[in-house]
Each structure stands twice: as structure tokens, then as C-alpha cells.
Specification:
Blueprint (H helix, E strand, L loop, with lengths): L3 E6 L1 E2 L11 E2 L2 H18 L5 E8 L7 H11 L4 E12 L5 H9 L4 E7 L3 H7 L6 H10 L3 E7 L6 H14 L3 E6 L16 H14 L4 E4 L2 E3 L6 H7 L5 E3 L4 E4 L2 E4 L4 H4 L7 E4 L2 H12 L8 H8 L7 H8 L4
Parallel strand pairs: 1-4, 1-11, 2-3, 4-5, 5-6, 6-7, 7-8
Antiparallel strand pairs: 8-10, 9-10, 12-13, 13-14
This protein binds S-adenosylmethionine and iron/sulfur cluster.
The site of S-adenosylmethionine (SAM) has 17 residues, from β4, β5, β6 and β7.
Length: 328
């Protein structure tokens, strides 16, 4: 039973040097057409399930104007949502204004995810990202209790001291949730020719992060939460449960099919969603269950596994071998 839905808003005012997400420059001309197509896509595929989590990601959803955001929220009213809805929006720090925060609140958003990435000026310059305005962060806190902060580490020339100082600052802000990722050097980005930092240093950095964030529940490789504030939406992915993905380049998983929508804005706004589909058989589903499940600190729940696949995971030869060699 589908309980989660991801909505992709691909517009960004600035493009970050490391980013390989599906995004295009913010352009007013496209936005109304994009929202028309999004509405059409939802009308075509959504079957009315009661949703427990809704996540608006990007791109930069917060780059939309108040009118455009109003239109988006009106479209999303078509979705049937439960009383315990976790409703997240990704927000870039420079977009935070009192008006937008109020609009989010008025439209039942109860969690915001802010891309900070680093507080260090050299790191920010490297990433082609704006300086951090602490007033904006504090304003967000006035309106929202459940805030996630995104950070990136293992940037070129970054030292343990620089990372430590980023961790000081994020702990001072005291968010309910922190996602912290080691820089991935992707092919289609401005930094594609860069060498990654030394693996040993990356490992030292990861240990430092785990140590400094020890008051948080480290529930997934890169995710830390005050207990009770773990992201229900992201747990849908890691629990290998099905979810809708709407919007250009969005991925979803419905009726045993994993799909990704077209990454072409010209196709998308013509309602040519051109999904690339992967049809899963039972073995594929089991493999996803393991790959996703091992990302979580809690690992794989053997009872749920048995219920879902009608077999005992501990009967699996490879799993047994890895367990006996102390590799699992
Ligand atoms: C879609 S972005 C977040 C929302 C918004 N677009 C922003 O940049 O603030 C999701 C997060 O993934 C992480 N991320 C994206 N590309 C990455 C890369 N190449 N290496 C490591 N982390 C990356 C960043 O922390 C980023 O904030
Ligand atoms: S990291 Fe976020 S803001 Fe930067 S280009 Fe990618 S989607 Fe846009």
C-alpha cells in the first residue's frame, strides 16, 4: 500500500559546482507550464491512496514565488493525506522569508530541509553557494521545530579542523535532523576532473562526525536525528516500500515497477512523461530490500522480511557465509 509521495521542482537560481540532480535554471516562462504538467501527471497516475508522507524536493522548491508556491499547494490538495502527515519542503537559505515560512505553515508543511552544506567561506565558494545568513536560519526556527540541515564534507582542501568548526556551528543551531554527505564527484558537473580526498582522511572525517553527533540517533549512514525526528519519508526508501514520484526526473516505485520520469523540460511540459521503467521480480525486490536495509542502523527486520518474501533470510547461504566470517 503506497503511503508516500515525492514531488520534484527542478528550478534553481544558481547551479552548484557538484550537483548532478535533475535541475534547470529558474525561468518564469516554464513554471506555469511545469505546474500544469505536474497536475496532469498527478491526475493520470495517483489512485487516491491515503498518504503519510509528502516531500517536495528539488532543484529548489523554495525558489518559486509566493504565487507559484500557492498554485503548487493547490495542486497538492488533490492528494489524500492522513492526520499524521509528515510534509517536508526543501529550502535554500537565501529564499527564507517570513512570507514564505508563513505560507508553508498555512499549507500544512511541518518539516523543512535547509541546504547549508558548509559554514566555511572557502568551501562555499568552491561549491558556488551563497554565504550563510544566520538571521535567516533563526527565522526558520521561529516557525518550524522540525528542521533538517544538509551538509557536505570531504571537500578539496578541507581539514578536520574546518569540518569540526562546521560541526560546532550546526550543533549550536541544534536542528532536529542532520544529513551529512561525503562529496561525490559526479561526471556531469563542474568538478568532474577533481580527485577525491584520501580515503583515510574521509574515514577520519566520518568518525569525527559520528563522535560529534553522538547525541543524535545515527539511524542511516548519512543521517542523524533527535530520537522521534527520523525522516519518515526517507525511511520509506530505506524500508523498500512503494511511493509515488511526480515531476520531471522524479523516481517512484509503484506496483512492483521502479520508474524515472523524463529529464527533458520540453517533453515534461508537453505531458510526455516518458517513464523509464524497471519491472521487478521477487528476487529483484529482495535485492533492493537488502541494499536499502543495510543503510539503516537497525538493519533488516527478519520478521518483516519473512512476511514480505515468505522465506527466512537466515536460510540464505551467502548471508550465512558473511555472518560466519563476521562480515555482516
Ligand atoms: C537536492 S539537494 C537539497 C536542496 C537544495 N537544492 C539545496 O541545494 O539546498 C540534496 C542534498 O544532497 C546533497 N548532495 C547533492 N549533490 C551531492 C554530491 N555530489 N555529493 C555529496 N552530496 C551531495 C547535498 O547535501 C544537497 O543539499
Ligand atoms: S545542490 Fe540544490 S541548489 Fe544546488 S544546483 Fe543542485 S539542486 Fe540546485
Amino acid at each position: 500500500m503506497i503511503k508516500s509521495c515525492y514531488i520534484h521542482i527542478p528550478f534553481c537560481k544558481k547551479i552548484c559546482s557538484y550537483c548532478d540532480f535533475c535541475k534547470i535554471y529558474y525561468n518564469e516562462i516554464y513554471i506555469n507550464k511545469y505546474l500544469d504538467a505536474l497536475e496532469k501527471e498527478i491526475d493520470t497516475y495517483y489512485k487516491g491512496e491515503l498518504l503519510d508522507t509528502l516531500y517536495i524536493g528539488g532543484g529548489t522548491p523554495s525558489s518559486l514565488s509566493l504565487d507559484e508556491l500557492n498554485r503548487l499547494f493547490n495542486i497538492l490538495k488533490k492528494l489524500n493525506t492522513s492526520d499524521k502527515l509528515e510534509f517536508t519542503i526543501e529550502c535554500n537559505i537565501e529564499d527564507i522569508t517570513e512570507d514564505k515560512l508563513k505560507l508553508f505553515k498555512d499549507n500544512c508543511i511541518n518539516r523543512i530541509s535547509i541546504g547549508i552544506e558548509s559554514f566555511n567561506e572557502d568551501n562555499l565558494k568552491f561549491m558556488n553557494r551563497p554565504s550563510i545568513n544566520l538571521d535567516k536560519l533563526n527565522l526558520a526556527k521561529k516557525y518550524f521545530d522540525n528542521i533538517n540541515i544538509d551538509l557536505i564534507y570531504a571537500l578539496p582542501n578541507e581539514t578536520l579542523e574546518i569540518l569540526n568548526s562546521d560541526l560546532d556551528k550546526v550543533l549550536e543551531f541544534n536542528p532536529k535532523h542532520i544529513s551529512i554527505y561525503s562529496l561525490i564527484i559526479e561526471n556531469n558537473t563542474m568538478i568532474r576532473d577533481l580527485e577525491p580526498i584520501d580515503d583515510e582522511l574521509d574515514y577520519e572525517m566520518y568518525k569525527l562526525i559520528c563522535d560529534r553527533l553522538s547525541n543524535y540517533h545515527h539511524y542511516e549512514i548519512s543521517n542523524f536525528a533527535i530520537p522521534g525526528y527520523e525522516s519518515k519519508h526517507n525511511l520509506t526508501y530505506w524500508n523498500n516500500d512503494e511511493y509515488y514520484g511526480f515531476g520531471m526526473g522524479a523516481s517512484g516505485y509503484t506496483n512492483n515497477i521502479r520508474y524515472t520520469n523524463t529529464k527533458s523540460i520540453n517533453h515534461y511540459i508537453k505531458n510526455e512523461f516518458n517513464r523509464v521503467e524497471e519491472h521487478l521480480n521477487s528476487l529483484d525486490k529482495e535485492k533492493y530490500e537488502l541494499i536499502m536495509g543495510f543503510r539503516k542502523l537497525s538493519g533488516i527486520n527478519l520478521n518483516i522480511y519473512k512476511e514480505k518474501y515468505n522465506k527466512d533470510l537466515l536460510d540464505n547461504e551467502i548471508i550465512n557465509k558473511l555472518l560466519s566470517e563476521n562480515k555482516l
